[in-house]
Amino acid sequence: MSTIATKPISRYPWFVRLFFWRQKRTYGRILEPGLLWGRSPWVFAAMAMLYGALDRRSSPLTPALRSLVTVRVSQINHCAFCVDINSATLVKRGVSIEKVSVLNGWRDSLLFASDECLALEYAEAMTVSGRGVDDTLRARLKQHWDDDAIVELTALIAFQNLSSKFNAALDVAPQGFCNLPT
Question: Could you give the angle at which helices 63-76 and 80-92 cross, rounded to 10 degrees?
Answer without folding.
Answer: 160
